[in-house]
Specification:
By secondary structure, this protein is an all-alpha fold. The protein has a single domain (63-276, 298-386), classed as Na+/H+ antiporter like fold, CATH 1.20.1530. Helices cover 80% and strands 0% of the residues. It has 21 helices and no strands. Helix 4 runs antiparallel to helix 15 (258-285), helix 8 (111-121) crosses helix 21 and helix 12 (185-210) runs antiparallel to helix 13. The protein is globular.
């Protein structure tokens, strides 16, 4: 495993740096590193590393979502209001509808199989979007209208919404039925996740005020608390979003102890340097290029067409706001990248033996390869000109 870690970090930093030099996102170099080292090309990663790949990717997500919460001022979200709420589910819903309309015609799948595919495709990647929005906040772009905060929060809740929809769609494809309880899973997951996170964050704020600890120790406590919240999702009787709880906890801590949150955010920024590398390298390692080659032009066309549906959904969310046309276009571009969720759930339909499993995985792989670099490049290339 040590050799695998060394190869991941060294080659990932090298290719990431080279891509940055030519004006492309570093994550593209990291994804390519994963593809080259992964089991489908070089097969240079230790099997034990791949066995815990999902846990390592989740750890990286916890780090970036905690950092996002530490930088998120809830009062900024209140200023945005309605669009911030709509961004949590409208773009994903419109994209799923787009896949259900187009996939049967382009790929020959059934309507239900298209719903499963749409649920896999519809999640935006917080691992791509959140670091970019934090960078914008640090530089002061779009903060006057709370644009980065709105996108950051929306991207986090978007994943919860999509994963619940995916679970329901897969259940239907296996012959299950939808009832009132399953329909309540989405709001319950969101409300319980936020409530648990806020309680945890307020508790930590009180604890840190009464007990003097070094910031490094506070990071360990916050990180451990985040792990427990994510673990609670697996055993909770009530539908519960662990990752949303993690972000809510750090946001509540920011509200309770802003100076502590500011210092911890600096610590987490340093943790993200390594976490970003292993996240995107391991996402790349899940990519089987044979699926991408086998997909053909129709799958690529589907991804670009439903990207248009998603952008239309973002535009709908922003109707009636004070945002300029360029600012709205930026939001549309920023909601484009897909990576982590697709890597996590793209292979599930195939593993369950669904007839559409092979095609769903193929489209998920292509979505990562196309939208992650395209979205990251779009954000980097437009924010200085489209935001103030």
């Amino acid at each position: 495993m040590l050799t695998s870690l060394a190869l991941m970090f060294l080659l990932g930093m090298l290719l990431g740096g080279l891509f940055q030099k030519i004006g492309l996102p570093a994550l593209l170099g990291m994804l390519i590193t994963g593809i080259l080292l992964g089991p489908y090309v070089g097969n240079l990663l230790d099997g034990s590393m791949l066995a815990i790949s999902a846990d390592l990717r989740q750890l990286a997500l916890i780090i970036i979502l905690t950092r996002a919460g530490l930088a998120l001022d809830v009062s900024d979200l209140k200023k945005v209001g309605r669009p911030a709420v709509l961004m949590c589910f409208v773009p994903a819903s419109v994209e799923i509808i787009g896949v259900m309309l187009l996939a049967p015609r382009l790929l020959g799948v059934s309507l239900l199989e298209a719903a499963v595919m749409g649920a896999v495709l519809a999640a935006v990647s917080p691992a791509v979007v959140v670091p970019k929005m934090l960078h914008l906040m640090e530089e002061g772009y779009g903060t006057e209208k709370s644009i980065p905060q709105m996108i950051m929060a929306g991207a986090s809740v978007d994943d919860v919404f999509v994963i619940v929809i995916f679970t329901a769609a897969v259940g239907l494809a296996q012959g299950a039925s939808i009832n009132a309880a399953s329909a309540l899973q989405i709001p319950l997951s969101i409300v319980s996740g936020i409530a648990a996170g806020v309680l945890g964050g307020m508790g930590l704020g009180v604890f840190f005020a009464k007990v003097h600890l070094r910031d490094s120790a506070k990071v360990l406590i916050l990180l451990s608390s985040s792990f427990l919240l994510v673990a609670l999702e697996r055993v909770s009787v009530v539908p519960f979003s662990g990752l949303l709880a993690v972000m809510s906890m750090s946001a509540a801590l920011q509200k309770k102890r802003p100076m502590v949150a500011k210092r911890l955010s600096v610590k987490y920024a340093k943790l993200w340097v390594g976490a970003e590398l292993w996240l995107f390298v391991l996402v790349g390692a899940t990519v089987d290029l044979q699926y991408a080659v086998r997909a053909g032009a129709m799958a690529v066309l589907l991804i670009f067409l439903v990207m248009g549906f998603r952008m239309a959904g973002v535009w709908l969310c922003l109707l009636g706001t004070a945002l300029t046309v360029r600012e709205r276009l930026f939001c549309m571009v920023a909601y484009m990248p897909k990576a982590t969720v697709q890597a996590a759930i793209g292979s599930i339909p195939l593993g369950l033996g669904l007839g559409c499993g092979d095609m769903v995985l193929t489209v998920a792989v292509l979505a990562i390869l196309i939208t992650a670099p395209l979205g990251a490049l779009g954000i980097e290339g437009t924010y200085q000109r489209w935001l103030v």
